[in-house]
User: Which sequence fits this backbone?
C-alpha cells in the first residue's frame, strides 16, 4: 500500500498543520459521537433490563472495548499507517452505534453490551489521534501538538450530551425508541470522522507507516517499555491519573445526589470537571515543552493530590468544594495525560512506538475499568471521603517513580 505523493512545495510545518487540522476535526466530531451515545447508555440499559444495577454495565463494556481495541488499532497503525487505523476504529464504532439502536428495538441487553464494546472503538480512535499528532511534529512542539488534539475533545463532550433531547425527538419521528435516538447522531458523527481521516490523511505522511517493522508480542513491548525509565514513568503516570479520575468522577454524581444536590448542580459539577480535563490541555502541552515532561507530570500529581485532599475533607453538603475538587481532578489528569503520553512516545525506540502507544491506551482503559468497578463498593462501604483518600494513595508510587527518574537523569 502506498500513499499519494506529497507535493514538493509542501514544507514539514505546513504538513503538520494540515495533519492537525484533520485530526482536530475528526476528534471534535468523534467526541460528539461518543458523548451522544454515552449520555443515554446507562438509561437505555436500565430501560431494557428493568434493573438500576445494570445501568453501569454499558459504560464498563465501552471502556473495556476501548482498552482491548487499542492494541489491534495500534498494530494497524504500525503496518498500514494511521489513516487505515483511525478509519477502522471509527468504522467499528459506527457499527457499534448502529447495533445499539437495534438492541434497543429488540430489548436485548446482551446485544447492547456487545454494541458497547464496539462503540468503545470510537474512544480508542480518538485517543490514538493524540499520538498521530506527534508523528510529524517538530521535536520542540511535540507536547503542544498532542495537546491540541486532546483539547478538541472539549467541543464534542460538551455538545454531545446536549443533543439528547433532539436525538430522542428525531428517533421517535423515525420509529426508533426515544432513548436510542441519540445513537443516530453517533452513527452519523462516527461516519463523518471516518470520512475525515480517510480522505483528509490520504495525501499526508500519516497515510502509510514510515518504516516497516516486525510485529512484537504485547508482553515483549511491555518488558521493553518497563526497562526504559522515562517510558515506564510515562505509562505509569497515564494509567494512574486515569484510574484516580475515573474512580472519583464516576461516584461524584451519586455522592452529590445522596446529599441533596439537584440534577442542575450535578450537571454543573461534571461540566466543570470536563472543562478541567480538556479545555486547558494546550497549556499543559506548553508546560511540557517548556518546563519538561517530568516536571509537568509532577505538577499534575500535585494538583491531583490537592483534588483528593479537598474531596476528602469537604463536608458532604459542601457542593462547592466538591465542584472545586472535580475541577482540580480534571486539571491534574490533563497534565499527566499530555506530559505522560509525550514522555512515553519520545522515550521508546521507533520499532515499538505504535505498540507502546497501544499498550498505553490498553493499560489506561484496564486500570480505569478496575477503578470504576471498585469505586461503587468503596463508596457504599466507606463513603466518598475514604474513596478520595484511597485514590490519593495511588499517587504515591508515581510520585516516587518520578522523583527517582528525575534523579537518574541528573546523575547521568
Assistant:
Amino acid at each position: 500500500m502506498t500513499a499519494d505523493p506529497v507535493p514538493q512545495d509542501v514544507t514539514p510545518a505546513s504538513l503538520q498543520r494540515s495533519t492537525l487540522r484533520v485530526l482536530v476535526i475528526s476528534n471534535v466530531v468523534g467526541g460528539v459521537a461518543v458523548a451522544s451515545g454515552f449520555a443515554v447508555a446507562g438509561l437505555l440499559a436500565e430501560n431494557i433490563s428493568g434493573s438500576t444495577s445494570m445501568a453501569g454495565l454499558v459504560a464498563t463494556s465501552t471502556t473495556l472495548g476501548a482498552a482491548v481495541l487499542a492494541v489491534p488499532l495500534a498494530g494497524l497503525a504500525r503496518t498500514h499507517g494511521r489513516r487505515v487505523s483511525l478509519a477502522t476504529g471509527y468504522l467499528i464504532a459506527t457499527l457499534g452505534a448502529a447495533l445499539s439502536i437495534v438492541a434497543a428495538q429488540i430489548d436485548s441487553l446482551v446485544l447492547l453490551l456487545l454494541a458497547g464494546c464496539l462503540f468503545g472503538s470510537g474512544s480508542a480512535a480518538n485517543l490514538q489521534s493524540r499520538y498521530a499528532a506527534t508523528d510529524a511534529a517538530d521535536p520542540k512542539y511535540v507536547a503542544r501538538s498532542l495537546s491540541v488534539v486532546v483539547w478538541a475533545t472539549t467541543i464534542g463532550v460538551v455538545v454531545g450530551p446536549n443533543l439528547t433531547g433532539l436525538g430522542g425527538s428525531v428517533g421517535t419521528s423515525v420509529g426508533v425508541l426515544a432513548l436510542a435516538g441519540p445513537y443516530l447522531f453517533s452513527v452519523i458523527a462516527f461516519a463523518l470522522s471516518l470520512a475525515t481521516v480517510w480522505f483528509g490523511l490520504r495525501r499526508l505522511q500519516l497515510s502509510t507507516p514510515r518504516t516497516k517493522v516486525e510485529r512484537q508480542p504485547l508482553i515483549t513491548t511491555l518488558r521493553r517499555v518497563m526497562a526504559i525509565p522515562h517510558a515506564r514513568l510515562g505509562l505509569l503516570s497515564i494509567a494512574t491519573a486515569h484510574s484516580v479520575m475515573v474512580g472519583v468522577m464516576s461516584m461524584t454524581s451519586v455522592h452529590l445526589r445522596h446529599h441533596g444536590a439537584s440534577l442542575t448542580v450535578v450537571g454543573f459539577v461534571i461540566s466543570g470537571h470536563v472543562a478541567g480535563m480538556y479545555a486547558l490541555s494546550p497549556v499543559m502541552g506548553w508546560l511540557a515543552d517548556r518546563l519538561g515532561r517530568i516536571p509537568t507530570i509532577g505538577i499534575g500529581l500535585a494538583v491531583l493530590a490537592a483534588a483528593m485532599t479537598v474531596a476528602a475533607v469537604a463536608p458532604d453538603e459542601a457542593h462547592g468544594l466538591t465542584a472545586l475538587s472535580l475541577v482540580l481532578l480534571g486539571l491534574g489528569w490533563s497534565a499527566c495525560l499530555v506530559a505522560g503520553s509525550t514522555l512515553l512516545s519520545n522515550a521508546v525506540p521507533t520499532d515499538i512506538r505504535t505498540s507502546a502507544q497501544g499498550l498505553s491506551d490498553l493499560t489506561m482503559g484496564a486500570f480505569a475499568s478496575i477503578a470504576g468497578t471498585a469505586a461503587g463498593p468503596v463508596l457504599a462501604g466507606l463513603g466518598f471521603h475514604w474513596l478520595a483518600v484511597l485514590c490519593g494513595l495511588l499517587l504515591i508510587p508515581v510520585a516516587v517513580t518520578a522523583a527517582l527518574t528525575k534523579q537518574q537523569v541528573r546523575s547521568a
Notes: Residues 9-210 form a domain with the Growth Hormone; Chain: A; fold (CATH 1.20.1250.20). Confidence is low (pLDDT under 50) at residues 1-6. The two ends are 43 Å apart (CA to CA). The chain has two domains: 9-210, 213-412.
